[in-house]
Amino acid sequence: MAGAPGRERMVEELLAALQAHVEEEDQEEEGGKTRPPRKKRKTNKDKDTTRETFFPMVLQNPCLPPPCETYPIPRRSALSMEQFGNHLPSAQPLVITQALRHWPAFGERAWNSPDYLLKKTFGGRRLVPVEVGRSYTDVGWGQSIITFKEFMDRYMLHNPQHGQEGIAYLAQHDLFAQIPSLRNDISVPDYCYTDPPQPAPGTPLALKEPPAKLDEPLLNAWFGPAGTVSPLHTDPYHNILCQVVGKKYVRVYCPEETEKLYARGIEEGGVDMSNTSQVDVEGDEEERDRQFPNFKRAKYMETVLQEGECLYIPVGWWHYVRSLGASFSVSFWWN
Length: 335
Prior knowledge:
nine-stranded mixed beta sheet; alpha+beta
């Protein structure tokens, strides 16, 4: 039913009703009230522990020290749609400040509140796909489907009951189709309704068949702890990356630097990985210089993207992203 066209409103109404029912039950449990058993009384063994873990008021992961910004990406404050349109022909990245603070995700429906996120996922019962490992290019990287509460417990809040669990990332996930009510906490930036330029002639994306024109921007959620990485790669769309919680270090390379970035090719199983670099940007420098000697000659720009800021990444630009602490971002792709 969830995938049938024209039924989005029905699905949203069903989810809202279920959400209200779960919150009512959880409130009664917290208040010490009990309900008569429907079919079977739960034993201690199978007791629902969704609300038993203590969650802090806000996400408070230690923040990793940011790298020194040697070649900073330019910044502009409260850029109007017209001013952004005037910037587009330059095809240059840009950090835009003071553009997102009207979002409820920064205020009354704060995404840095674990309790709020749990309530929006039926007490953490919703299943989510996560990437297990630092980066999808690492050996041992994998994928798993777990409850949202388990993801929070194990990887975001480091519940000692789970021990040392490594790292996991809820990455490039259409969370807002799965949990429509979260979509009301943000809004598509006006910048995504401008007419952006095509990839520059002679660059790798310009040589490929362009993707179909989007009717609406594509939204994806990126939620994870410190140390999660999106390796150096390109996207087929223009991107506005919005930082809602925490900080991220971002490094970008223009398409003209592609030859120095050692793109992957067609890998095992026929998977086209030509949009991803072989280089571990912040890996061992000596090993990197030995394997990829031209990489150090590639020119780049960088920034630490703060809460409430967004970064415009032009189509075809290579970008590397690392979370410096507990981080929640939303990307808006458009063409």
